[in-house]
Description:
By secondary structure, the protein is of the alpha+beta class. It has 2 domains: 2-112, no CATH class; 124-319, Umud Fragment, subunit A (Ribbon), CATH 2.10.109. The chain is built from 6 helices and 16 strands. Strand 5 and strand 6 form a beta hairpin. Helix 2 (28-74) runs antiparallel to helix 5 (105-118).
Amino acid sequence: MQILTSFILAAFVGYAGAWYLGMLEGNFALLLFLATVVTGVYWLAERFYFLPQRQKAVALLEADAIKRREALVKQGISQVDMNITEARSRLLAQPWWLDWTAGLFPVIIAVFFLRSFLFEPFKIPSGSMIPTLTVGDLILVNKFHYGVRLPVLNTKISEGTPPQRGDVMVFRYPPKPSLDYIKRVVGVPGDEVAYLNKRLTINGQVIQTVALPEYFDEDAMRYFKQFEETLGEQKHRLLNDDDRPAFIPGADDFAFKQNCRYSVEGVVCKVPAGHYFMMGDNRDNSLDSRYWGFVPDKNIVGKAFFVWMNFSSLKRIGSFN
Length: 321
């Protein structure tokens, strides 16, 4: 078992190392699931086989000690020093290969349950959601708000609240589902979304915006126009960059692209059933549905709702819309 366990642990370490070095594309959900299964098997083996075997060895040791003590007493030796505590402890102790498998199972299954069905941490990798979310924000994603899904497969097993316009949602990037993206829900199934001359219109109704003081982006070292927009019941801020054109350059081929009409003014899209139209709040610096298409329901990960840490700015901690 020591050799087998060494190979298993080496495989996990090798996979994580290759992922970290960029030699392969990792899948943390799958890695956590496999770790849960492997450590769970070892935990069951420890509970129902290895531990009883060690307890049996201790019982034999104690029975042997009693027999020797009785034999010595019969010989008239009453002062018997037979301390077997240390030997008993050695026999009951878990070997290293069980410490690193069965011993970790309670922690790993707790993390697996929390991450798969309740809340998942997520780090903001880019500035596409500025000013709502900034690079380095560590956020929490509600995994059950839109319905409970099976880990790894992401298959929905219970209905939740349907995504609403204005929600900040984490989803699997349609062109590359191994990547998680975060954007704002702008269009729900059946909506006609128009983004023309940097003005958003949904189902023929112009979404009103209110001008706010300019936003200073410390990374870009420049000011951007800032507005407050209301989508559904959600008020949020957005940025516009006057130096960027209104038209959408280099849109990919994607499913239901025939539902979209591109022009020099921007794009108009009819959202198909079971899909969502996503946009970043940093409107002119966001790679979103305007470029790669609609997000299918099966790609939904969860609703983002709370910044739990930003090591560069602790004042960022808190809920957001």
